[in-house]
Amino acid sequence: MTARLKAPALTLYLHPLSSYCQKVLGAFYENGTPFEPRTIDLGDPESRAELQRLWPIGKFPVLRDEAKDRTIPESSIIIEYLERNYPGRTRLIPEDPELALQARLADRIYDLYVNDTMAKVVTDRLRPAGQNDAFGVERARGQLQTAYGILDRQMTTRRWAAGDVFTLADCAAAPFLFFADLQAPFKSTHRNLAGYFDRLMQRPSLARVAKEAEPYLAMVPK
After folding, report:
1. Beta bridge partners of 200
2. pLDDT value at position 7?
3. CATH number at residue 121
4. How many domains does the chain have?
5. Of the N and C termini of the chain, which has fewer Cβ atoms inside 10 Å?
6. Taking the model in full, what pTM does it have?
7. In whole angstroms, what is the distance from residue 77 CA to residue 99 CA?
8. Per the domain annotation, does 35 fall within a domain?
9. Residue 51: how many CB atoms within 10 A of its CB?
10. SS3 at position 163
């Protein structure tokens, strides 16, 4: 008799085009952690309601761990949770406290000053006519250029976002830089950052995430 495969205890509620979901997917693929993906369509009321039953804020990714009866929102916290409860071959939070702090700082820089700033530019293009925020977009573009400059200088001496080891910050940087480059190209002006992005895209786990997002890229405003 063929043994029945046990379903993964972890379910990740996501959409493949979401940069924050891609960040978490990179962590899952990097360590080969078994999970069940559950795609959420926020445009579908039933699908949105399913997500909100887990996390009333209604944003993804959200991780559900049935084995521990835990629901974990927020991409960085999900990765920390995986590191603590389902560790793999790659330590995404370094054991050394100083390196761990550096990784968390780099993660926050990419979250707040690359991804969220870039999102301001994108979402403004989705607003109804006459309700755009030209001042906010101009300010966001300036902040994004400042972030590019900081990161470009850092990458003169670093292989990965936090130094010589691959961490959760690199899981964040790959999708965030990809989408940021679509809105405010950096590859010809920030060569160190561009070289880092190339290394990210050569990482099998992150390349897989990017490949899975390709069918949805037509949805991204240009």
Report:
1. none
2. 57
3. 1.20.1050.10
4. 1
5. N
6. 0.92
7. 17
8. no
9. 23
10. strand
